[in-house]
Write a structure and sequence with these properties.
The strands form two sheets. This protein has a five-stranded antiparallel sheet with strand order 1-2-3-7-6, with no helix packed on it. The radius of gyration is 24 Å and the shape is elongated. The chain contains two helices and nine strands; from the N terminus they run αβββββββββα. By secondary structure, the protein is α+β, with helices and mostly antiparallel strands. The protein starts with a helix and ends with a helix.
């Protein structure tokens, strides 16, 4: 019994980190100038990531990403992107600060050519801290304590 519990506790951190997912598309194949643009994001509360993927000839002068909450609680923030991948790829990356959960409007602007907008919901990143872990484990620990107490009581009476 103790061996199984020890194995479970050793595997628990690996299970908790498995909830953080990969980026997903929020705008796909939208025409902007000579390019087809797709936006991919992993909008974790705190710091999320945004990828801007271009298909078409050449590269724009610059690609910027802006974010603002749909509820209007914060002003729009603009982020510069950095190009990733091989020279023939057109993938741009930036980290975006999502100050709180809820709907956010993301816009990718291609210098001199236009922009693509979409909405996304910022969510927790899925990694539990020590307080959350304790809170979620408390009912199970209480049930285990009561079960152990009942087993000990039964042994004493027999």
């Amino acid at each position: 019994m103790i061996r199984r519990l020890a194995i479970l506790l050793l595997l628990l951190p690996a299970c908790l980190h498995a909830h953080a997912g990969p980026p997903f598309p929020i705008a796909v194949d939208r025409p902007v100038g000579p390019w087809t643009v797709s936006l991919w994001t992993d909008p974790d509360i705190g710091t999320g990531v945004v990828f801007v993927i271009l298909e078409g000839p050449g590269q724009p002068g610059s690609v910027r990403v802006s974010a603002r909450p749909v509820d209007g609680g914060l002003p729009e923030a603009v982020y510069t992107t950095e190009r990733q991948g091989r020279p023939e790829d057109a993938r741009y990356f930036t980290k975006v600060k999502f100050a709180h959960g809820g709907k956010w409007r993301l816009r990718a602007t291609l210098e001199g050519h236009g922009s693509v907008e979409s909405e996304v919901e910022a969510t927790p990143d899925g990694v539990l801290g020590p307080w959350e872990l304790g809170l979620y484990l408390a009912p199970f620990l209480a049930a285990g304590f009561l079960w152990g107490k009942a087993v000990l009581r039964r042994r004493r009476t027999s």
